[in-house]
Write a structure and sequence with these properties.
This protein has 229 residues and is of the alpha/beta class. The protein has two domains: 6-18 and 91-225, HAD superfamily/HAD-like (Rossmann fold); 21-87, DNA polymerase, domain 1 (Orthogonal Bundle). Helices cover 44% and strands 14% of the residues. Helix 9 (203-207) links the parallel strand 7 and strand 8 (213-215). Helix 1 packs across helix 3 and helix 3 (50-60) crosses helix 4. The two termini are 18 Å apart. This is Phosphonatase-like hydrolase. InterPro entries: HAD-like_hydrolase_sf (IPR050155), HAD-like_sf (IPR036412), HAD_sf (IPR023214), PGP-like_dom2 (IPR023198), PhnX-like (IPR022468). Pfam families: Hydrolase (PF00702).
């Protein structure tokens, strides 16, 4: 395996425990329009750009998914998520801060990508005390509204490579807790693509995606890369 220079991780469900509030907010913001969101369709669109997820879930529920409704539903999603996060603040999943620090200490840059827009992700990370730069614990953060299209397209991963000066995609590891995380990693041609089982999906679920590898948690990635005994 090529030496990994950049690890790109999803946020909610992968590095952060946000108590399922993204699922709740996404479902409620769509169902308030009088459509039903199935568990299967909700899972399919988790991890994707939230505007696109709302549009698709509306249409899957029989709604026209017109732009005015999509925009209003996205505003409602953001408001709900702010309320949910205020009531129960997100927190790092066990072992994640230590794993991120260990990766960076071993020369592996760390980037987060997310289906959140910048105005949602920024305050969330600030509340955790997570920041980019030499004094922070991250090298880059890329949000879905900073690229032409979110997952399963590879553009956020490519932007993370750009921001960290990573030239060789074979030296990139991508990990996330949803199908679209894995699909985006594969679309980018990342050297290592992993599902992690800290969200709703199991090892068997990931294996069904063209035999994708999985780990119980991002916390195990330093060991996976041979950075610890």
């Amino acid at each position: 395996m090529t030496t990994i220079e950049l690890a790109v991780f999803d946020m909610a469900g992968t590095t952060l425990n946000e108590h399922g509030d993204v699922y709740r907010a996404l479902r409620q913001s769509v169902e308030e329009n009088g459509v039903e969101v199935s568990d299967e369709n909700l899972q399919t669109w988790m991890g994707a750009d939230k505007v696109e997820a709302i549009r698709s879930l509306l249409r899957l529920g029989g709604h026209a998914g017109d732009e005015a409704t999509v925009a209003a539903s996205f505003d409602r999603f953001r408001a709900l998520l702010r309320d949910f996060y205020a009531a129960t603040p997100p927190e790092p999943l066990p072992g994640i801060p230590e794993a991120l620090a260990e990766l960076r200490c071993n020369g592996v840059k760390v980037a987060l990508t997310t289906g959140f827009s910048t105005d949602v992700a920024g305050p969330l990370l600030e509340g955790l005390g997570w920041a980019t730069g030499e004094d922070g614990n991250l090298d880059a953060v890329v949000c879905s509204d900073e690229v032409a299209a979110g997952r399963p397209y590879p553009y956020m991963i490519q932007r993370a490579m750009e921001r960290t000066g990573t030239k060789d995609v074979a030296a990139v590891l991508v990990a996330g807790d949803t199908v679209v995380d894995v699909e985006a990693g594969a679309a980018a041609g990342a050297g290592v693509v992993l599902g992690v089982e800290t969200g709703k999906l199991t090892a068997a679920d990931f294996a069904a995606q063209d035999g994708a590898q999985s780990l119980p948690s991002v916390a195990e990635i330093p060991q996976y890369l041979g950075l610890r005994d």
